[in-house]
Amino acid sequence: MTAIRNWFEQGGAAYARYRPDYPVELAVFLAGLAPSRRLAVDVGCGNGQFTCLLARHFETVLGFDASPDQIAHAVAHERVRYSQAPAEALDVADGTASLITAAQAAHWFDLPRFYREVRRIAAPDAVIALITYSVPEFDSEVNPRFQQFYANEIGPYWPPERRLVESGYADLPFPYPEIAYPEIDISRDWDWSGFVGYLSTWSAMRKVELSGRMDIVDDFLTEFESLWAGKTRTIRWRIKMRLGRV
After folding, report:
1. Phi and psi of 193, rounded to 5°?
2. Fewer Cβ close by (within 10 Å): the C or N end of the chain?
3. CA distance 199 to 12
């Protein structure tokens, strides 16, 4: 049996470097909808990637995450205050938040309890945005092979909640009048090592490894590296939202 190559020896060490970051225009758009710029609340804030974007437009942003490790490593900003707390129990005064966001996090929430908190903390005419992004899309010459890998080869190793992300949160209950939003994409230009680093951050990778089936990944990457052909390639993720007024 051929030995499986350790593709992730370099890429797996830098999660923040390889995850897609949110475009500035997303924060600008959401801030423009809010009834005031006093307070935004970012729930499931992780390392504060999107929280700090909001801080460019609000006097104060509160970032909450259930993970103490994420909060410990969150990016500092003079207008951001981070706290460890679940989405269902937020330390926010009643009726004060003009914008409430959850970026790539809402599929983990107990939504009925979270929505009760949203109603409690929302200022009049506040906006709520549940944000996610689509499966990445590549240059046309390599995209079909990537989509086959994503759907059919590593697909069974994603957690069930991943289906909600893939649908752009279309299947999430959302009890608010919805607001239309413009097409906004995340775009990154990556060489081969950047792509491998991104792949190493997938939660499905851990399950593949624990299942002893890294041969699935090895076979794909061996073939895909050849198709990649040493180029810098553009990868896009389409922003999807459930966006409404509370």
Report:
1. -65, -35
2. N
3. 8
